[in-house]
Amino acid sequence: MLFHSFAFVALLIPTLLVYWLAAGSRTVRLGALLAASMVFYAYHHWPSLFLLLGTIAVNYTAARFQERRRSRPLLAGVVLFDLSLLFWFKYAGFVSSQLVLLAAAVGLRLPLPELSPWLPLGISFFTFQVIAYQVDVYRGTVPAERSLLVFAVFKSFFAQLIAGPIVRAKDFLPQLRERPRFDPARFHHGLFLFFAGMALKIGLADVLREFADEAFRDPANLPTTDAWLGIYAFAVQLFSDFWGYSTMARGLGELFGLELPVNFDLPYLSASLQEFWRRWHITLSAWFRDYVYIPLGGNRAHRVRNAVVTMTLAGIWHGAGWSFILWGAIHGAWLALEGAWRNWRHGEARPGTPPTGWGRVVRVLAVFHGVCLLWVLFRAPSLQVALVYLSRLLLPPYTGHGSVPETLAIWLIGFALLQGFLTRALHRERFLAWPSWAQVGLTSAMLIVALGYGGQKYDFVYFAF
Q1: What is the pLDDT of residues 343-371, one digit of tens each?
Q2: pTM of the predicted structure, to 2 decimals
Q3: 318 catalytic, yes or no?
Q4: Considering 189, 281, 318, 331, which one is annotated as catalytic?
Q5: How far apart are CA 321 and CA 382, in angstroms?
Q6: Where are the domains of the chain?
């Protein structure tokens, strides 16, 4: 059930009515959210619903026991349970196939069955969300939630269930316990966010997807100019797709009086890779920082190892394949080199002065193109295809007479100019400071763009994670 489908709208409207008409009753209000979340998730693949319900039950029970008597073995056990589900559904097939290939390389025959379990939607996101909850309860950062209903909604709220943003218990659980107050201005901004995210998704991401798919279909025969335009198209497609989803999720949250975190902040204007990861998929980056990088030692010791391990795990999180592993490892090495350079230039005590003027422009362009080159590993269906595509980008012969239409360049330039304005509008205070006619006009414009491309029905990219 895509956010931009009639089926979702048919689910959303009655849920909103029940939620606000019964705002005084927490049981009815949250019951409506939970029921809608279960229908939303089961619509994609109903057997996956039992996995979600089982995960809710196990993690709710474990956290309650954890609060009574803090236990490291209990924490390890429940985290291992959550990760084992993620491993089985997402990685078991890949690991099994690689073991068979490794055995064959040394002359052995390994009689492992071909494993191909289905991939439950959003399993990576809700697994990381609940692991953070278990660790926070163990650390005493948050108390274990006593209400099973509140915890179930925290775990399964449909706006962020499948592709984030990854909400933290300390931020979201208090909102679920409080009685919401209907605010027409906030509700209108929620509608704007929903329509703006929809416009980004089907009015930009899905259009650029056609160009990116064409470029990666036969990269060996791509002219150099088409190869670069193709990876630019994918870079903007991926950003618009996930930014669109996150914006729609935030809009849905505001329709229910709930605040979800911002997940993107103009990442392609970053002057370093570290800054990029502070602006791209902010909640996931913060998760890896707080629950992997810092526990490994952070900046205190073995910084290079910690950066490479953390980002390699981030690559594995994105997908089961050598391309993702390599993508993460290179990001980790890049971050480690940036850290070493900063220390050499400025010392441990001073982070250095952020670049300004033309110096920043040059760094932004360098980081953007470095990220784009690594997106090839992310997008290509295999490592072999990725290497072919990279050769067309970087190696001679360089050719410039391709078939990519000029409209693609116009789309990309238009998005580059528009994103700063749109980012400002996505902030509630700035949006509500505008005259009413401007608010209504912008909301209507986003809806018109979305409806104009309403025939596009591609899944969100991060549904695969």
Answers
A1: 777 665 455 566 778 888 999 999 999 99
A2: 0.90
A3: yes
A4: 318
A5: 8
A6: 48-182, 185-271+354-464
